């Protein structure tokens, strides 16, 4: 800038006052541009708000899907993938929405009754190996709103390899009860307390998984606390609870 001013001064010495005035105006403009450039603020850094809005977008897509707005959920999920590329959960949900039903599940099926407090998400986790398959399961049963499932309702489960393995496990447990009077089983044939505790712990663990998939970390932790209150050595609950607490802590740090 100093060199530029010196050249301007030397040039102005041989010019008229009118020309010099014009040159001064040019110099003032150049100086103002240089100052403005120097004072221009740096680009704003990404904040925790961006992270929060991204997580909220995925949760919003889940809510839309549970309430039957597949088109809106599809738009949200594709936008979410642009922000978080290769997110497997988002891609899985998009597959549940966009894949033609005959390619998504086999036509052959078996039926189960919805138990108390059971949802399509918990059924999908039990029989299809992923609670996010709730929407595909809803489509398979001709349900437009997955969240509207009632106790005692009959739900068709496609005969996938995972579903058949789950069905076999459940059938094996039901077909092989412990003999009355053995290993603490009451003589009247009713389930023993350890057996009932085991079933209850499994139910709480499933509830925690469903809550975690919804990104409701507090509800997931509460469910897994109940599991560990019943069985402190429940390994999967220990690991899942630790993961949820760690994720909750990371999100809290991002909000600071």
Walk me through what this model shows:
The protein is built from twelve helices and two strands; from the N terminus they run H-H-H-H-H-H-E-H-H-E-H-H-H-H. It is mainly α and 256 residues long. Helix 4 runs antiparallel to helix 5 (88-98) and helix 7 (120-128) packs across helix 8 (134-140). It has helices at residues 2-12, 17-39, 48-66, 70-83, 88-98, 101-104, 120-128, 134-140, 161-175, 193-213, 217-230, 235-255, and strands at residues 109-113, 154-158. The longest helix has 23 residues, at 17-39. The radius of gyration is 32 Å and the shape is flat. It has three domains: 48-98, no CATH class; 104-174, Membrane-bound Lytic Murein Transglycosylase D, Chain A; 192-256, Alpha Horseshoe (Serine Threonine Protein Phosphatase 5, Tetratricopeptide repeat).
What's a concise summary of this model?
The chain is mainly alpha-helical. The protein has helices at residues 2-12, 17-39, 48-66, 70-83, 88-98, 101-104, 120-128, 134-140, 161-175, 193-213, 217-230, 235-255; strands at residues 109-113, 154-158. The protein has 3 domains: 48-98, no CATH class; 104-174, Roll (Membrane-bound Lytic Murein Transglycosylase D, Chain A), CATH 3.10.350; 192-256, Alpha Horseshoe (Serine Threonine Protein Phosphatase 5, Tetratricopeptide repeat).
